[in-house]
UniProtKB/TrEMBL annotation:
Coiled coil: none annotated. Belongs to the metallo-dependent hydrolases superfamily. Adenosine and AMP deaminases family. Adenine deaminase type 2 subfamily. This is Adenine deaminase. It is an enzyme of class 3 (hydrolase). GO terms for molecular function: adenine deaminase activity; zinc ion binding. It comes from Streptomyces ruber. Catalyzes the hydrolytic deamination of adenine to hypoxanthine. Plays an important role in the purine salvage pathway and in nitrogen catabolism. One of its GO terms (biological process) is adenine catabolic process.
Length: 330
């Protein structure tokens, strides 16, 4: 059994495997421009961010009903459970669905059909984080937050994703203030492609408690010092970084240097159907490519629970942490 871990950076739309895409397309009468699952799997070998995003949004067309979103989440949970995930804080992108006529309620209720019973069905506790698309307007983000108010008992926090450069965190100051007033937790993608200054802005202007990616903090020693001092968790996604060419090869990934610097790093899968692996695959990949030893792997697993939004259930966090300490890597 793989080491127990929490997954904190996972876009549910990015877990759509070719087989499920075809099954949902058939169910909903959606025509996909691929002959079969092999042809679609071939298209998953994209070369850059834009070709990834094109495919990502194209395939979302197969997600129409509550049952579709439930099936998507169940398929992810089954794979995650097999890779040692015990707790998952799952992103979804409401605007990507409402823009094509699928109601926010359909998305949330559908996902909840799977997440609401995930402990019984998959042995995974779950929380839902609603992300705003940063290449859409600040007004659209605010409208999305208002539309989500009836569902806030099912949403633990808000995040910010999609194309980073040119869309600094400060653009979303107002919606993050509104989210905080509603008692929602706050995270944001920052410092993946965008500069270290975006990380600082996400902390100072948006009040984020966790930074998604945050890789480029390493270019700013003062920022690294601050992230260490304030124990701000970073949700790294090594296989995603390689596929989107944020780093050249896995062997060049700054994870070891980040751990050496004292940063609270976690390892996650981002969009696993597209980037070549789920949470456990990412652990295995960094273990091999970076030669991480047992203590580093245990630290990463421990960090994932430390960084989780489990403040409402510290007993559970303690139980997960005890499992990590007891885990035998041999
Ligand atoms: Zn992401």
């Amino acid at each position: 059994m793989p080491v127990p871990k929490a997954e904190l950076h996972l876009h549910i739309e990015g877990t759509l495997e070719p087989e499920l895409a075809f099954a949902l397309a058939a169910r909903n009468g959606v025509e996909l421009p691929y002959a079969d699952t092999d042809a679609l799997r071939h298209a998953y070998r994209f070369e850059d961010l834009q070709s990834f995003l094109n495919l990502y949004y194209e395939l979302m067309a197969v997600l129409r009903t509550e049952a579709d979103f439930a099936d998507l989440a169940d398929a992810y949970l089954a794979r995650a459970a097999a890779q040692g995930v015990r707790h998952a804080e799952i992103f979804f992108d409401p605007q990507a669905h409402t823009a094509r006529g699928v109601a926010l309620g359909t998305v949330v209720e559908g996902l909840w059909r799977a997440l609401g019973r995930s402990e019984e069905t998959h042995g995974i506790s779950t929380q839902l984080i609603m992300c705003f698309l940063r290449d859409e307007s600040a007004e659209s983000a605010l409208e999305t937050l208002r539309a989500a108010e009836p569902y806030l008992d099912r949403i633990v926090g808000v995040g910010l994703d999609s194309a980073e450069v040119g869309h600094p965190p400060a653009k979303f100051r107002e919606v993050y203030e509104a989210a905080a007033a509603l008692g929602l937790r706050r995270v944001a993608h920052a410092g993946e492609e965008g500069p270290p200054a975006y990380i600082t802005e996400a902390l100072d202007v948006l009040g984020v408690e966790r930074v998604d990616h945050g890789l480029r903090c390493m270019e700013d020693p003062a920022l690294v010092e601050r992230l260490v001092r304030e124990r701000v968790p970073l949700t790294l996604c090594p296989l995603s970084n390689v596929r989107l060419r944020t780093v050249g090869t896995l062997a060049e990934h700054p994870l070891p240097a980040m751990l050496d610097a004292g940063l609270l790093c976690t390892v996650n899968s981002d969009d696993p159907a597209y980037f070549g692996g789920y949470a456990g695959d990412n652990f295995d990949a960094v273990r091999e490519a970076l030669g991480l030893g047992e203590e580093r792997l245990r630290e990463l697993a421990r960090n994932s629970f430390v960084a989780s939004f489990l403040e409402h259930d510290e007993e559970r966090r303690a139980r997960y942490l005890a499992e990590v300490e007891a885990y035998d890597f041999r």
